[in-house]
Amino acid sequence: MREMKIFSANLVILLIPHCLSIHNRSSSTISDLDLLDKVLKGYDRRALPTSHSGNATIVSCEMYIRSFGSINPATMDYEVDLYLRQRWFDERLQKPKFSKALDLNDPNLVQRIWKPEVFFANAKYADFQYVTVPNVLVRINPGGELLYMLRLKLLFSCMMDLYPYPMDSQVCNIELASFSKTTEELQLQWFKPVPIILYENLKLPQFEIEHINTSLCKEKFHIGEYSCLKAEFYLRRSLGYHLVQSYLPTILIVVISWVSFWLDVESIPARTTLGVTTLLTISSKGAGIQVNLPPVSYVKAIDVWMGTCTTFVFAALLEFTLVNYMGRKRYNFGKRDISVLQLESSCKDSDKEDSMAQPLKENTEKQDIRVIEGKMKSKKIDQISRVAFPMMFFIFNLIYWPYYLIRF
Questions:
Q1: Which of 33, 89, 158, 352 has its CA 20 to 30 A from that of 212?
Q2: What is the DSSP letter of 72?
Q3: Which helix (H) or strand (E) covers residue 77, if one does?
Q4: Are 381 and 321 in contact (CB under 8 A)?
Q5: Residue 334: how many other CB atoms lie within 10 Å
């Protein structure tokens, strides 16, 4: 029993400093909040922090990019989830001597403080994050410096040049500007030294961020000049996806169309089926690629590739038509001559049958020779095509890839 009393006494002694510190922190926070309430009673949120001095209020901006959504070439836009941080100095909040920085996330308190009226000039759609609480924070430092932080989900427009698509590089912008205050009242500037911060594990599905450029800009309207900030993201498209989904399948289709050159000339059903099937397949593949692209008025790199591959497949089908026509032309001509001679011989007297037999035999031999010559020429064309088609396709690749990869 005595040991229990000693243990309880020691525990009380240990807990007393901790309780006192909690009480001191609690009383300090309460005193800071009470002091803030007193200041805000005479605070006019409509007036700029530097309106009494006649100078423009300088606001430093910083962006933390949490996620960079997939860039859609069909609609020419991209989605960004970011934290917008704005810093400025307000002398009206410098007078109270706060014991430490005061963080406010209560929307009612936040609305009572002046904040810069800025907007994203090239945003198509914007959404404020409310899960699980409104994602807004105002930090008041003891010296009167304020930090205003928002989490936003925005859809930005990005006008793309798709001429070298899918080996293209794009520059997408984020423009932040003052909405109602001119440069005489409000001036925006990028926070130094790092105005744009990317999430360390940030990855884009089809692009790689090469570098980011930030600059100042001014927008002039008939009612005045407004300060704005611009962030340029230099992006380069990754070619791996399109190599697997577009280029490799079309190469295989073109190569399969060349199998027709190794089939016999008289294999008409097999060669016809192969040619028509490959032509329809590559046509549907090209239509599937165009679904995800806008209807631009210029020729893209993928259009050149698909057009050339379709031409090779169609040329293989025409080659079979030519080969088959040449072989059958000699054969049909020979049968027609034989039938005419047989008809003439049947109409003549029986006395002349013996005299017609010899010319008929000679014509038949000549037609057989012509048939053989036609088949030999058809086979010769097939043999030439076996070398010419792959060679021309190889030359096309030697020109196509360096032109778009090196130039763009």
A1: 89
A2: B
A3: strand 77-89
A4: no
A5: 19
> Token pair for residue 305?
């590739």
CA distances (Å), 108 to each of 83, 85, 113, 239, in order? 21, 19, 10, 50
Q: Helix, strand, or coil here: 66?
A: strand
Q: How confident is the model at residue 370 (pLDDT cuts 50, 70, 90)?
A: low
Q: 36: left (phi > 0), else alpha (psi -120 to 50), else beta? A: alpha
Whole-number Å distance between alpha carbons of 142 and 253: 71
- Global confidence as pTM: 0.77
What's the pLDDT score for residue 365? Answer: 59
CA distance 147 to 83: 12
Q: Check: CB of residue 228 under 8 Å from CB of residue 121.
A: yes
Give the amino acid at 206. Q
Beta bridge partner(s), residue 65:
82, 198
138 vs 150: CA distance, rounded Å? 9
Please return the burial class of 108, using the count of CB atoms within 10 Å of its CB with bins 0-12, 13-18 and 19+: exposed
Task: Kindly state the helix (H) or strand (E) to which residue 241 belongs, with its residue range.
Answer: helix 240-242
Asked whether the beta carbons of 293 and 349 are under 8 A apart, the reply is: no
The span from the first CA to the last CA of the chain, in angstroms, equals 87
Residue type, 192: K
What distance in Å separates the CA atoms of residue 357 and residue 377, rounded to the nearest whole number?
31
CB 65, CB 199: distance < 8 Å: yes
pLDDT, tens digit, for every residue of 310-363?
A: 999 999 999 998 888 877 764 444 444 444 444 445 544 444 455 555 555 555
Residues forming a β-bridge with 242:
none
Placement of tokens 């165009």 in the chain: 290
Tell me the per-residue pLDDT of 171-195, one tens digit each, with 9 for 90 and over. Answer: 999 999 998 888 889 999 999 889 9
Max intra-chain CA distance, the chain = 154
Q: What's the angle, vertex CA 167, arms to CA 164 and CA 168, rounded to 5?
A: 65
How does pLDDT run across 141-159, given as a tens digit for each residue? 888 889 999 999 999 999 9
Contact 167, 39 (CB under 8 A): no
CA distance linking residue 117 with residue 114, whole number of Å: 9
CA atoms within 13 A on the CB side of 259: 16
